[in-house]
Design brief:
Blueprint: H1 6-41, H2 45-73, H3 75-94, H4 99-113, H5 117-127, H6 131-163, H7 167-170, H8 172-186, H9 200-223, H10 228-247, H11 264-294, H12 299-305, H13 307-327, H14 330-349, H15 356-383, H16 390-420, H17 432-459, H18 463-480
Amino acid sequence: MREPSRRRRMLVLAICCTSLLMVSLDSTVLNVALPSMRRELGASVSGMQWTVDAYTVVLASLLILAGSTADRIGRRRVFAAGLVLFTAGSLLCSLAPGLHWLVPFRMVQAAGGSMLNPVAMSIITNTFTEPRERARAIGAWGAVAGLSMAAGPVIGGLLVESAGWRSIFWVNLPVGLLGLALTLRYVPESRAERPRRPDPVGQLLVIGLLGSVTYGIIEAPALGWRSPVILGCALLAVASLTGLLRYEPRRPDPLIDPRFFRSAPFSGATVIAVSAFAALSGFLFLNTLFLQDVRGLDALHAGLFMLPMAALAFVCSLLSGLLVASRGPRLPLVLAGAATAASGLMFAAFSAAASYPLMFTGYALFGIGVGLVNAPVTNTAVSGMPRAQAGVAAAIASTSRQTGATLGVAVIGAVLAAGVAGGADGTGLSDPALFAAAAAPAWWIITACGLAVLAVGLVTSGRWARETALRTARRLERAAA
């Protein structure tokens, strides 16, 4: 097939980045809207967790399936289907009459979103074949994620204050329809030379693992850690994980190829993605409640408060792509981990939330950390793999992000819910002293996530790690021959 022109390649990149912007904005805009949704729908802390985690659990569960299916039947076809489903899910969310309708409609959205980001990354990887040009394209991809963070809180605040929380879903409708038209017109079709066979058992095991862990963590504060339901979730999670470890290596085309994890950089990118995005989702969830329910800010001013973090995330996403292209992933990973850990430490040990200068410094440090981490994770995950398996590798990286986002909201929300239980308003969110005491363990969790990014980034970005990646790539290519 003839190599597309540079103009065509840049247009394909723009279309793929638009899909990322739509999906990423949906997450950051939603966080700002949570307090308004809670008040209108009468939701508890766990109800707010489910509006976020119903989306991320489904997304994480289906990303690998979407990536492998796209490699098999055509990436443009799956990408276009994802745009249709995500746009339809957004329309349904905007019409939801209550929380029990909103949560399943968010799951419809997630099913569409699972077909967008990993498939878009696979399209980019197969469009930009020269390594340095691909690194720059992935850097642009990371910058768009940073842009969504910068724009999301402000756009969300404006929409919520002017038209209500339902309007945050309306913005997806014109963007999704435009993206669909441009995809059908300009994105070339591509697929793997040797299609991978479906793995329904592996898919069910992944859903069982992620769903049981998330449900158990979110509902445990209300039901009790020793309740039969929570113990049943723990048993299901252990059984699902055991099944994956025993079943997948025996499959000729496993949903999650265990051979990928022989590459230290790929394994490291997976752990880093889980840690970094657990910190990010927990940070956004915690701060949204703090700024609006404790500080009493409206949605717009809460978004403006987080703007220093978001703006630095955008700038550092651009810088990170350049650093990865010129110097490799180690420096941005180390800086990302150090900045994230320092931010968490300021809130955990120095009560940064009680002082505006310290709070904004903590926000700025967190923005630097989250901005620097995305490009090296994505580049490391896909660069060492054969192009025929780019969709699966990109999907595993995206799954790691969404798994981290799911765990971040579940764990930090559960810690917060347990700490504020019994407050005067029924949730304890309006009691500053109670909220601060409940949030302290959550900030230590975010600090630990930053330290994990730092340590794993150091270990998996040196010479030994690169050699394992080369050996893994050769084995995969020989197996595919």
